[in-house]
Amino acid sequence: MLLKNKKAILPGKFYKFTVFALFIFLLTILLAAASISCSNELDKRNLTADTLPSYTGYFNDYTGKIPRNWADKTEQLIIELEAKTSFEIGVAFIRDLNGLSVEEYAALLFEKWGIGKKQSDNGILLLASLKDRALRIEVGYGLEEVITDTKAKEIIDDIIVPAFREDQYGPGLYNGVAAIANSIYENMELASVGLVEIEEKVPFPETWGFPFLIIFATIAPWLVIGLIFLNFFLKSYIRDHRCPNCRRLGLIIKKRFLVNPTYEYPGRQEVISSCKYCGYQQRNTITVPKKSKMSPGSYSGASEAGFSSSFSSSSSSHSSSSSGSSFGGGSSGGGGASGSW
């Protein structure tokens, strides 16, 4: 009787339908997971092709935080390293990781830029994300024995991170590149380069009045000079624009030349003063001095020539520092280390 009740509760056809529905449910979950995985891979491929930045040299700042002198100094350091050893270092200081991990972003960027020589894969990428406060040193196959994972981690934690925590991004990236270069130079028995000293933030002193006194003593003379000039300007303005009839500051002054001045003779100018409040009006004729004998064109020509010369020299200097700053098509070996500040 009990078996008959069980069969009545769960007949054979209903049991088969339940198993089939469960199978369909599990299959749907697996297909959804596979679809999400494929979508992520597609997003990464699209990120590589479209969204990842292109390099303009060995050193690339996409945040505007790095002063030009540090960018040029670091670029020159990498150029010298490549000339001596053929090894290449790419630096990317980006705003954010676009939702990826720092390891994923570094691998994709390394692949897009092709850092290092194609035959030897001797390239390194130093990546820093400002918004995510994340760092990564990605190492090519040909440098994994020189810049080991442990060495890369030491460079990040001991050299770059302390500088970044003091907002010293330019010196921090320079020292990071210098430390990588020194590891390579040491391995090849070449002379190393020096690291720059990082200035630590000085905490605000307890005797807070002292620095304010220094600042005030420095600014006070300029404030006095400014007040003197302001007082002179206001007195002059009031004197020229006060109506002699109603004594209000409503005098409008218009000037027109009756005779234009030349290099031989002075000119004549009519000055019309009229009050916008009481209708007072006065006309005066004044003498305008002769023109100066100095030709203004000679000075402006020299000025333009000087500007053109300095601009061309500046441009040639920039192009010379950026010339040859291109990568050779290397690949990442997957080694390296990550960190944050």
Overview of the molecule:
51% of the residues lie in helices and 17% in strands. With 341 residues, the chain is α/β, with parallel strands linked by helices. Among the domains are: 59-199, Diaminopimelate Epimerase, Chain A, domain 1, CATH 3.10.310; 239-287, N-terminal domain of TfIIb (Single Sheet). Strands 1-2-3-4-8 form a five-stranded mixed sheet, with helices on both faces. Strand 5 (251-259) and strand 6 form a beta hairpin. The chain is elongated. The two termini are 73 Å apart. Residues 6-10 and 295-323 have low confidence and may be disordered.
Task: List strands and helices in order, with pairings.
Elements lengths: L1 H8 L2 H40 L7 E3 L6 H18 L2 E7 L7 H12 L9 E7 L4 E7 L8 H17 L3 H19 L21 H33 L9 E9 L7 E9 L5 E8 L7 H27 L9 E9 L1
Parallel strand pairs: 1-2, 2-3
Antiparallel strand pairs: 3-4, 4-8, 5-6, 6-7
Helix pairs in contact: 2-4, 3-6, 5-6
